[in-house]
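subagent[fold] <- orchestrator: predict structure for attached chain, return tokens only, no commentary.
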Amino acid sequence: MDISVIFRLAAIGIIVTVVCQILKKSDRDDISTVVSIVGLVIALTIAVTMIGDLFETIRELFGVT
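subagent[fold] -> orchestrator:
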């Protein structure tokens, strides 16, 4: 696991939070909700990819096919 992944997830969280706050202040709560969901999906996609890589490494380590 590389430390850059943690920074990438943190950056996504900060950007989504700032955009959501700006949208909520301008009375665009519906778009703010969509931005939050999209940010969550992007973060989960990165996490699922990392988990898949972890399982692949474990599979190679123990020689399971």
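orchestrator: received. Logging for downstream: The mean pLDDT is 93. Residues 7 and 23 are 24 Å apart (CA to CA).
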